[in-house]
From TrEMBL:
PROSITE patterns: XYLOSE_ISOMERASE (PS51415)
Major location category of this protein: cytoplasm
Gene Ontology MF terms: xylose isomerase activity
EC number: 5.3.1.5
Family the entry assigns: Belongs to the xylose isomerase family.
Class of enzymatic activity (EC top level): isomerase
Protein name: Xylose isomerase
Assembly behavior: Homotetramer.
Cofactor note as given: Binds 2 magnesium ions per subunit.
Cellular compartment(s): Cytoplasm
InterPro entries: Xyl_isomerase-like_sf (IPR036237), Xylose_isom_bac (IPR013452), Xylose_isomerase (IPR001998)
Positions bound to Mg(2+) 2: 268, 271, 307, 309
Amino acid sequence: MSTGFFDGIDPVRFQGAGSDDPLAFRHYDPDEIVMGKRMEEHLRFGVAWWHSFAWEGGDPFGGRTFERPWHPQDNMANARLKADVAFEMFEILNVPFFCWHDVDLRPDMGNFADNLATLNEITDYIGDKMAASRTRCLWGTANMFSHARWMAGAATNPDPEVFAFAAATVKSCLDATHKLGGENYVLWGGREGYETLLNTDMGRELDQMGRFLAMVVDYKHKIGFEGQILVEPKPQEPSKHQYDFDAATCIGFLRKYGLEGEVKLNLEQGHAILAGHSFEHELAVAASEGMLGSIDMNRNDYQSGWDTDQFPNNVPETALAYYQVIRAGGFGKGGTNFDAKLRRQSIGPEDLIAAHVGGMDVCARGFKAAAAMIEDGGLEAALAERYAGWDGAEAKAMLDGDLAAISERVLRENINPAPRSGRQERLENYVNRFV
């Protein structure tokens, strides 16, 4: 039986670029074959339960602007109604996946036993709904940043009892993800960092976080969870400094604690911007180390200094991001999760559908542009030409040599190289042919 929340909104269909229907796909055709595979299988879209259904439209200066029939979100009857509405939206959009935090699905009950009971109750309910739906769980995670107990961190907390509560919480969420057939489990350390070094033992906290993650990996294998374990970089907000600052920092952390073969990265466009990077940079860093797992697709407002989590609308940026994903071999078990929320003035159910339609279209346009660049081969050819000198035997031998031998050769052959153009503008012009 319909909840009535989306009454009057029909399932979204692909109508092509010429359509003037505001709730139609113009560029995302899930069945379109690109590089030998259906578009849906490449992009693997996911809906974020937290921003789409749990977020209430507040900001740092004002409270709720959304009036939803499942408000207040403090009881299980409303949690079930929220799940009913979620699956109605999944059907309207025909999306293959959703993602969740524990507190998105059920209210925080104040103690672990009740949290566990209500999480099991709601995930049983969601499992029943999944049995009648094509939409699956891309990943689950635990919210260990909102409640006051997490104010000084979770795994990095100076109080060992908070560490214990965090460990129990992650176990419960990993169990629930496994039960729902999730393909990944994500750990985002929202407050794993510090506000001031005056009261912070950084070495101790990093060791605690490393041990915590190792225990998660051990438990994954114990229960036979075949999904990926992912960590999600973010430099700041809410903490002044977070230990998972960016992709490179996370990779160094994973290597330090011997987890590089067990854990990959879930990368977000908005977090990349906060770290002073482009999204393509973060993707390239992760891909270069074989640690690109999945992405959160959104954007930040470049006039704001915080994580605004807006739906993507920049095709060139999206194309360059998917170019890195394709070069890395695609998502595998990962996907494109819309960690994006409506603006607080966009209060209607139709706004929620329109936002996802627009985001999916932008991603489709960007992906097809990236695929066209890969198939054309222009950027790859330019790279090969630029580094061609390293293909020679003498250049390769130099990397196995020593400074003295190289110096002797420079003197002997009177090596004095002239600068060579990087041709950046030509390459940017090349990209613009496709976007």
